[in-house]
Design a protein that fits this description.
This protein is of the alpha+beta class. Helix content is about 25%, strand content about 40%. The longest helix has 15 residues. This is DUF5648 domain-containing protein.
Length: about 190
């Protein structure tokens, strides 16, 4: 299959622009003295808290951007208030992707993913039900985001954290396996 030079150049430009960090600038021309255009980040003011609650008896954590839902889990379901995991965006823009939230009633596990394929696989073959889009997350390390780590226990329940020490302890002492980075959230300020 022969690719046209125009197609290859367009593909290379798209890859390079997508890979640029937020504080990078892009030149409109080839002259280094020309004005540079900054790559825009989503408006931080739109970032909303991602609340975190935990139930040590179930070895389960719950994450939501809905304040009322969070307090229901704490007050009625007896989860502990673990504070915040970071901030997600409440609406989609060109730099964010949806975080799908699923639930397995048999394991009490809430599962979060940015992958449509993984979402569909968990629904069709692993007993999960789709609940909603939890929010929108940065898929790469642009805009000064911090990684939201995803882990899984031997019992196949998931745990998410932005704290590298907490991730290390979960893997080293609690039997979790590290699955990777779900995406990048904004720090709580």
């Amino acid at each position: 299959m022969k690719l046209s030079p125009t197609f290859v150049l367009a593909l290379l430009c798209a890859i390079l622009v997508k890979a640029l960090p937020a504080n990078t600038t892009v030149s409109e021309g080839s002259d280094d003295n020309e004005e540079k255009i900054p790559v825009p980040c989503p408006d931080f003011q739109r970032a909303i808290p991602l609340f975190r609650a935990g139930n040590p008896q179930l070895r389960n954590h719950f994450y939501t951007t809905d304040y009322n839902e969070f307090w229901y889990m704490v007050m009625e379901r007896k989860y502990l208030n673990d504070g915040y995991a970071g901030r997600l965006y409440d609406t989609h823009d060109r730099y964010t992707v949806p975080v799908y939230r699923l639930y397995n009633q048999w394991t009490y596990d809430h599962f979060y993913t940015t992958s449509e394929w993984e979402r569909d696989d968990y629904i069709s073959s692993r007993g999960y039900q789709y609940e909603r889009v939890a929010g929108y997350i940065l898929p790469s390390d642009i805009c000064s985001g911090i990684p939201l780590f995803r882990l899984i226990s031997r019992a196949k329940t998931h745990f998410y954290t932005t704290n590298p020490k907490e991730r290390y302890e979960a893997v080293t002492y609690q039997g979790y396996a590290y699955e990777g980075i779900l995406g990048y959230v904004q720090e709580m300020r």
